[in-house]
Design goal:
The chain has about 375 residues and is α/β, with parallel strands linked by helices. It contains ten helices and 18 strands. Strands 3-2-1-4-5-7-6 form a seven-stranded mixed beta sheet, sandwiched between helices. Strands 12-11-10-13-16-18-17 form a seven-stranded mixed beta sheet, sandwiched between helices. Strands 8-9 form a two-stranded antiparallel sheet. The N and C termini lie far apart (about 60 Å). The relative contact order is 0.09. It is an enzyme of class 2 (transferase). InterPro entries: DNA_methylase_N6_adenine_CS, RLMG, RlmG_N, RsmC/RlmG, SAM-dependent_MTases_sf, Small_mtfrase_dom. This is Ribosomal RNA large subunit methyltransferase G.
Length: about 375
Amino acid sequence: MKPELTLHERALTLKRYPVRKNETLQAWDAADEYLINHTQEMALDPLRPILIMNDSFGALSCWFTQKGRVTSVTDSFIARQGCLANLNANQLPHVNIVDCLAELPDNPQLVLIKLPKNNRLLTWQLQQLCNLLPEDCTVIGAAKAKDIHTSTLKLFEKHLGETKTSLAVKKARLIFCQPNPVLAKPLPVPQQWEVPEHELTITNHANVFSSDSLDIGARLLLEHIPQNDNYRDIVDLGCGNGVIGLKAARLNPHASVTCVDESYMAVASCQANAKLNLPTPDQLTAKVGNCLDGLEHDSADLILCNPPFHQQTAITDHIAWQMFCDSKQVLRAKGQLIVIGNRHLGYDGKLRRLFGNVSVVAQNNKFVVYRSGK
């Protein structure tokens, strides 16, 4: 049965962030609606916290902030900005938004978990919750039914407590878990591994791409980072653990390197890696952001970029396009953008359209490294 008021009927102005002109994207899914419907009649204590984990664009936060004290936990700067924008658009109360590495509020009464794509992040969050939750806390996970596997349920059972699932509704399913404090154990330390050919030691927090080895795209790009005594400012855009920025800093010790990513865990990893690998860690600055928002125009000599082509579970090129557009603004005259991408993505066409020039620096059977100059 539907609740008296659903997201549609309440006409909440929920938008994904960022959105290109004339692009309409829905900021919630069937799993969000299933959670709202299921908890509609739940009696909640206005004084005890509600935790919402991995809320993509604020749909759950917008709904539950009217029910009690909400803390939203996310590793995504984009999700945070989307949540804030949607709360503001609907004139809704404040939500406490924290990143996945932050301390969580004590004694929550309800935890809602949208399952992340990365099981390492899910494991981290379940272990974090097991150290925190009282036994009377209600824990409900949600995702598309096709994304809830037996292995997913085993993770809940192993790290948090007894687990059951619901029937599927609109191809979404819920997970119910009873916290068991006996399962609590110290949180795992970040993964650490070596890149001997580049004399680097890399630390990865749970939600950072390629957790235990150098991915093949980064491996190719590392071989083609330029060295130039005239470089003053270098940017690693979409930095992940910062391995590209670290190599650029090593090759260009007189340059200032700025690493940017929308993942808080990526930026924390990058900061740790600068301390591990650079003689002067202050040479590298890591910051969370939406592409290059906030960087001054005409302020960089070289931008290195490995664009993602997924947002949440959607395959999209709009992130790469924004990265390229931002790079053109941030580069100084005669500055260069070096991009790596899968061959089938066809970044050369976008770069030629934007910069008027593009050349192939290197390629293999899967990846191509392109260069465009301003």
